[in-house]
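Duplicate of #3305? Posting structure anyway:
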């Protein structure tokens, strides 16, 4: 009674990992339709402190001289060129998931920053940018008089 059905279920279960990989690839391909190429590269983390904002992004294997950071008003721009691993003659990629080539990422900041005080450090493939809030934009306590 369960023989053929059990066999079919096992065959289906064995193919599930490939189906999941296929679904991910299809989702990745169609998620970028209508978007600018690389619009979400590099991925970033942004968090706010009391007096500053911190932005981190992973840029593995890059030369810091190939990374550009600028702040205009309340817009942070991270751009550069990722060169990747050069292939030798006769080599071909079996899988290539790392982004290569030019990239630009714009981040709308929630406040005006003190541009001259912005600091950026690149260590072990991670770029850390600290963007201090302008003094005029810092919250301040208002004294109430009676």
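Output from current build:
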């Amino acid at each position: 009674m369960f023989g053929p059905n059990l066999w079919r279920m096992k065959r289906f279960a064995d193919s599930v990992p490939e189906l999941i990989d296929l679904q991910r690839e299809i989702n990745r391909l169609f998620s970028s339709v209508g978007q600018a190429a690389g619009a979400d590269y590099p991925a970033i983390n942004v968090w706010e402190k009391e007096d500053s904002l911190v932005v981190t992004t992973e840029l593995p294997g890059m030369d810091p001289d190939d990374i550009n950071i600028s702040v205009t008003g309340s817009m942070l721009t991270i751009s550069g060129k990722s060169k990747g691993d050069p292939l030798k003659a006769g080599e071909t990629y079996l899988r290539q998931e790392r982004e290569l080539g030019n990239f630009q990422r714009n981040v709308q900041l929630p406040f005006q920053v003190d541009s001259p005080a912005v600091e950026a450090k690149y260590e072990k493939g991670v770029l850390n940018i600290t963007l201090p809030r302008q003094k005029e934009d810092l919250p301040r306590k208002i004294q109430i008089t009676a």
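Confirmed duplicate; merging threads. The helical segments are 3-31. The first helix runs from residue 3 to 31.
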